[in-house]
Automatic annotation (TrEMBL), chain A:
Species: Dyella acidiphila
Bilayer topology annotation: Multi-pass membrane protein
Cofactor section: heme b
Ranges for domain Cytochrome b/b6 C-terminal region profile: 235-380
Protein name listed in UniProt: Cytochrome b
Complexes and interactors: The main subunits of complex b-c1 are: cytochrome b, cytochrome c1 and the Rieske protein.
Cofactor, how bound (note): Binds 2 heme groups non-covalently.
Function field: Component of the ubiquinol-cytochrome c reductase complex (complex III or cytochrome b-c1 complex), which is a respiratory chain that generates an electrochemical potential coupled to ATP synthesis.
From TrEMBL, chain B:
Domain Cytochrome c: 40-212
PROSITE patterns: CYTC (PS51007)
Compartments where found: Membrane
Signal peptide interval: 1-24
This protein's name: Cytochrome c1
Amino acid sequence: MANVFSTIGDWVTERAPGLMPVYRKHMTEYYAPKNFNLWYYFGSLALLVLVNQIVTGIFLTMNYDPSATGAFDSVQYIMRDVEWGWLIRYMHSTGASLFFVVVYLHMFRGVMYGSYKQPRELVWLLGMLIFLVLMAEAFMGYVLPWGNMSFWGAKVIVSLFGTIPVIGKDLVEWIMGDFLPADATLNRFFALHVIALPLVLLLLVVLHLAALHEVGSNNPDGVDVKHGPKGNRWDALKPADGIPFHPYYTVKDLVGVGLFLAIAAFIIFFQPTLGGWFLEHDNSIAANNLVTPAQIKPVWYFTPFYAIVRMIPSALGTAVWGVLGMFGSIALLFALPWIDVGKVKSIRYRGTGYKAALTLFVLAFLGLAMIGTDMTDELFPKLFGQDIDITAWDNNFGRVLVLIYFGFFVFLWLYTHLGWEKTKPVPERVTTHD
Amino acid sequence: MIKRYIPSFALALGLLLGTTAAMAEGPELASAGNNLRDTASLQRGAHLFFNYCVGCHSLKYMRYQRIADDLGLTEDDVMNNFNFTGGKIGDPVISHMPPEDAQKFFGKAPPDLSLEVSAKGADWVNAYLNSFYLDPKSQIGWNNLVLPNAAMPFPLWELQGEQVPVMAAAKPGDDPQVASLKLLHPGRLTPEQYQQTTRDLTNFLEYVSEPAALQRRHYGIWVVLFLLAFTFLAYLLKKEYWKDVH
């Protein structure tokens, strides 16, 4: 058997001599720092979820009907009449939410250990583009089941573009192809969701990895193994603190994959709606432009950004500021490598001010998520009494959080550009070397 | 190394589960207490549905065949006891009542109940079926605490009997609010029997909302156990490979 494989291998190598070097460059001779911790599982998990979404998506497409009259029924057809259709759909819907779980954790890892800093700015920019495309992909996918929340969610989100002065109203009609989310909207969102955006996503992921492998991975100490001592067991010229990605990190990632899949399977088989968080109750009602759901709110992963739109008031006769605020909150993340120019990468050796600011930023992000999901509507009366004005509390609390969110970037700029940061000494090598 | 993270992960998981549980509660409704694994209850619920509900309500996504397969009934059982429209065993459950008539009778066509529990929750459906009361001000003579001004006359009144509202003391100028319901004329069933009846009906409707729930619970435990075993093996493999990394 081994003989057959090596014969085939030789045959291919003879005809495509460039293949093995590519494999070696990215797998067996890609030297990753040996001190990756738990936070470094989420990149490979994101890739796994992407594959899951594509494979389950293909099977869903075989039975889904992208028309306003047929979409909702076809989803129930998948759930009831297609062999294993329920499993495929729950893998896709659970995968969508878990995609954002791992991507948010992956991004936080990058911020925490300064992975966006020189020389990895391009890796960060490509990653942010992936995040942006992922949001568009998720939004359009959410519309496809054509439940009532899909319909009203689409209406509200597309209407955000209507706040743009002068062209807003025409732009909204152009996006939807109708005056309301309708058959034309569903058709085009389907095309974008299953073809256009996945292609872009895949290309960006390839570029993200290629850009990473050019400069090498960061690590929890934020010291570049390439600048450390040279020479390891495999290569005298390669970093002493690097180990080959394959097999070391492939087997390590396999452990993460197993645990992640176990958690995902638990959700898929026992709590596929996760109490209305992954699949919302109002989406079990077919789209109806005459019946507005009691609360229109996006799925959990968009809520921090949705809260920013809601919290920023109209001014000068236009509501565009909230939308600008939302896009601004994402644009600032793109600019992070130029806002934060501190030389020290990892949070382990950064100043106290940075640690405090990052903690506040995370709390503000989670707080905005709570407002966006309307959790505060139940929480505030419990904490502060039944007869409080919930909207006023939401607004006051939320606006402070918006200020903290944007304040983080202002602070970081001042902190690093004006040299206020008092860092700790950074070790010469990763801390776990022998 | 990993130990350092355990408290933070436990905290994160606790927060997640805690908030999820808190959010799932929603408005205060008594728990329906139904159990999808109770096949006898599902069968009783199916009989109730086809005796009292299918006259007006369809289950357009539910086929007779699937009911027979999942509830351990024979095709003859289902065709003789449930199918009043002359449909085939593979047909979905469609009510007899023409939609135009329904519109005329009730002012609103009775909704399809295929996804009622998915949309509203089992607790809501169960509470709704326990909350009808006599209301002379309403055109149909009935009203409902959970869904005020519901268009449906109470179909189970023979079973439960007739409830009347007990009004709460109102502040001057406010309309009095219903505080609770009191059984005025008992029906054929005792209150305990009636609660079991609505629980069975709710159980059947929950099954109808997602027939796959029976399958996924059946397979789920084995999938999760397999993946945990896989994780353990992967962990041993990782340890073996990493022995020489210091």
